[in-house]
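Notes, Module 5: Reading structure tokens.

Key idea: the token line is not a picture. It is a compressed description, and you learn to read it the same way you learned to read a sequence, by spotting repeated patterns. We will look at two proteins. The first is printed below with its tokens.
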Amino acid sequence: LIIQNSILHGCDGAEWKGIQVYGSNGGQQLNLFECIIADAVVGIQCNSSDSVQIVRSLVVGGERGVELYNGKSFVFSENIVTASKVAFHTSGYEGSSLIEANTFYDVDTAIYFKNDDHSELNIRCNHFEYNDYAIYSDNTTLKDHGTSSDVSGNRFISESTLTNHQLHHTGSPMNYYCDSAWVFTLTGGDAT
């Protein structure tokens, strides 16, 4: 499914269910490029879909901006997601993936992982403005992000007082390297 240069929204300001893709775990199953998705309960939902690409798009409103379930590999790059409770969510995903150069703002939780193998996922150069968590990872494998000489480049802006609100992680042990201008301390959990 290729959707390009489109504006998709509910009629007369009403909510709609959004884009739903049910794949077969083979081949590229969604390529969404330079689109606007507005006022959907879930803007984009993919289940058992591989090689999902969502690039240079705007997702506004709803319970969740993007949901990916039980698939392999995705690229989520240069998007803006706003006014959602959860902007980007994966569960049961694995494979080489990328979350890069996105802006998340006016969201409760920007990124939420649950039961994923993201050992090949890169999260870099994103801008997070959130109420609760920037990245919330539950029972998920994450690789180290950045190195001491090449940081991940993510920016976090929030007044959240929740513990580890920048990166709340349970799962595999991992290290997160950030720019000296965005230093934060992680306590407990599996991230340092």
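Here is the second protein, with the sequence above and the tokens below, as before.
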Amino acid sequence: PIVGGTATVMRNLLSAFRPECFAVVADSPSSFPGEMHQTKTPTTTSVHRCGVPGFLARIPFSAHWLPYYRAAQIPRVERAIIAEAKAIQAGRIVTAYPSLYFLVAAYRASRSLGLPLVTYHMDVPFPIDRLRPPARQIATRWEPLLLREAARRLVLSEGIADYLEARFGLKSVVIPHSFPLDSLPAERLDAD
């Protein structure tokens, strides 16, 4: 399964493989504002959504306690990953950074099932001192461990690979951005 799936993961990572071989465990689109997480997924890919119900984010002051709610969801996400992995007889678990909660759930599921963990980094990890609780405690405890124990670390760019090597001393495999960027029309800014 691919864990912590986003539109970028779907279109970039899955395009490098056969999407019918994957089951995706991802945050609910309603967990985030806007429509970027509403991107259509390949019809051959199983997608299990779990995350913060959208109505909770609309409660006043929810920004203070929602990170704790997400952290409390780690066991639930882990169970979903295990179920999806068993259903497709997975040979490995792929998890996408930057979702710390999904990273931890994927790591725990991979250990429980005895499957190799592959991490996919769309960005560099946040500096620990810039994270707020409980993400700070989760990153401090789990991030170095799961990165070291990952069978492979896939990254979106050479810059991310260089960062992970400098910060953690770990080599990564670059999967070049698979969007056909050259075929996209350039934005035009008028000087008016």
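Summary for the second protein:
- The helical segments are 7-13, 54-57, 62-72, 74-87, 100-113, 135-149, 158-168.
- The chain has seven helices and seven strands.
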